[in-house]
Amino acid sequence: MNHEDTLCLAIIEDSGHKAEGHATALRNAGFTVRFDLVNNLDGLAGLFSSSSPDIVFCGTGNQLPDLNSVTRLLTERAEGVPVIAFTDEITDAAVNDADHNGVMALVAYDDPDSLQAVMKREQQTVLLRRQVRQLGKRLAEAETRCSTLMESSRDAIAYIHEGMHIHANNSYLDLFGFSELDEIAGLPIMNMIDPGDHEKFRKFLRSYDNDSNGTLKIRGVEPGGNPFDAVIEFSPASIDSEACTQIVIRNHADVELEAKLDTLSQQDMLTGLCNRQHFMQVVNTSIQNDVEEDQLQAVAYILLENFKSIREEIGIAGSDMVINDIARLVETACGQDDVIARFSDYVFTVLHYDSSKEGIQQFAETLRQKVGEHVSDIEGQAATTTCSIGICVLNEHTSNAQNILSRADLACEVARSSGGNQIHTHSTTVDEKMDAGNEDKWDEVISATIREERFHLVYQPIVSLNGNAGSRYEVLLRIVDEEDHIILPGQFLSIAEKTGKSGEIDRWVINKAFSTLVEQGDDGSDVEFFIKLAGATLEDPELPVWINRILKDYRIKSDRICFEIPEAVAIRDLKNTRTFIKAMQNLHCRVAIEHFGCANQSQLIQHLPVDLLKIDGSLVNGLASSEEQQEKIKTLIDLARKANIPCVAERVDDSGDLAKLWEYGIDYIQGNFVQEPSKELEHDFEGELA
């Protein structure tokens, strides 16, 4: 169940224990639940003023409001929200009271099965009611917003019906010399058109389809009678549910300014290339559009190597000059139709068009050579760099820009971790197998991969921003197929979970990670590993026993291990997650929730005594330019701080994002800005970020 299916409950009870009991009964039946507890009518009214619960659970108690008062308040504040009433015993009187007040169901406190059955039967109806409420709220907000925007707009806007004005904003009145709306109501629009263009205007209106948009270049008449050139935009509209036509005469200065602002919003301010957001939009659009049969599209992900060292040597201003040099160099290597972006601090991306895969490879090779041969002269000091390039060719298996960039990024990592200054192309072989849907075949592929140990581990540092000592690494799995092609871990592990192999893979990773820790010897005594676990692994009751045994076999201090559980898994399987966390903490291992914040389940940490929260990278990536993400991140950090739980920000790839995280007081960061994943445990944790 995804976050859109989360049931939001308002529970009227006299104790948190009872409320948690209702929520637990639903979670045990597979529902995702979020609830707010109130114990009086004022609390319920306040709740509906600030949020929109899907359903109200009304308990029985001497200090609680009666059912009639609750349903009366809902009629006034939130008509249509259903009520489930709870009672100690199902009696005729209780049933009659429930029927009289129109509740959805009456359930006994000691009968959670009935509650589960009611919710399974009514779930879709409840969620549909929510959608209707949300749509109604959005419509009202949109109408208010449109009215406000229209009145404040410098563009002249009017509404006409059968050629007559029925409404206009102040800009329209000023344009044609009117002071009051009453002066224009019922006036023919033809009066605002230069007589020489009357026939042109009539002809346009006769052919105009009232259900579509249209544009007409024509001359209007100023208050003094002088004509002026105008472009009038026509679009269908309604006022007070009556169909009409909206006309807009743009303010030319605003049009030019809007175009400039639009262009600036798509550009990287340093290089003038596309920024990340615009590039992603372009790639998504490209996927949806058909291309010529003899043309291929590919995304090249270009990582400048050792760039942090360059920045340290010549400073920020000097490194910016190098970035600009490389940007111009990339432009000269690209074709006329190619789209180029500065994707992050020292990563460029190109949407490249070519006639063949060989042509794409040659393009990347030319680019690699140009970067390696280029020397930037920064105030008499030479600066050189090389690059690793990952390529993903667009095809029927590449469904969206995020998917494509992830594959190109992984291909780039393969090139970098193989020695750097190389090119690696993502193989579509695995994608084709995935789409084939042959689970039996994949079961054998996964079994062979495990049997032949075509895995290896890489490690990415997690750095403290508040001076906490110690070396922390997340353990990441890398997989190759029988043809030595890199397989995306997400692809492989999702199939492994379906075929029941994910537990076996997780045990391989744990065993290999423990072995690596032992190899560090005394010098690695302060190294801590963060190890990911799949959802199915948590269902294995023998896992804690096995972990305890190999901790003893390897003689590893358990506080050097932190297991990561995805937020979605914790929500879906709260019972097993709790059991596992308790077992690990009894062993003195730590547990973190990763991808935290995706499901908007802020109350999750109230039910799980975790040691760390890892904020999902999708909320971190692009943080510097998104006010919505900034508000979300601040809320999550404040929530964690109140619960006294440290936070890690995942996928920190940009200095602008890091600056915001520093401002908000994040505890730890992880991402390519710090260091790309590496086979070696070699990060300098005593450096500038530590």
Keywords:
690 residues, alpha/beta, Rossmann fold, Beta-Lactamase, Alpha-Beta Plaits, 8-stranded mixed barrel, 5-stranded parallel β-sheet, 26 strands
| CATH architecture heading of the domain at 266-426 | 2-Layer Sandwich
**Alpha-carbon distance between the termini?**
39 Å
> What general outline do the C-alpha atoms trace?
flat
Query: According to CATH, what is the topology of the domain at 266-426?
Result: Alpha-Beta Plaits
How big a fraction of the residues is strand?
Answer: 15-25%
Q: What structural class do you assign from the helix and strand content?
A: alpha/beta
Average pLDDT across residues? 84
For this structure, what is the CATH homologous superfamily of the domain at 266-426? Reverse transcriptase/Diguanylate cyclase domain
Low confidence ranges: none
Summarize this structure briefly.
The protein has 690 residues and is an alpha/beta fold. It is built from 23 helices and 26 strands.
Molecular structure report:
Strand 14 (376-378) and strand 15 (381-383) form a beta hairpin. The chain is of the alpha/beta class. Helix content is 44%, strand content 22%. The mean pLDDT is 84. The strands form 5 sheets. Strands 18-19-21-22-23-24-25-26 form an 8-stranded mixed β-barrel. Strands 2-1-3-4-5 form a 5-stranded parallel sheet, sandwiched between helices. It has a 5-stranded antiparallel sheet with strand order 7-6-10-9-8.
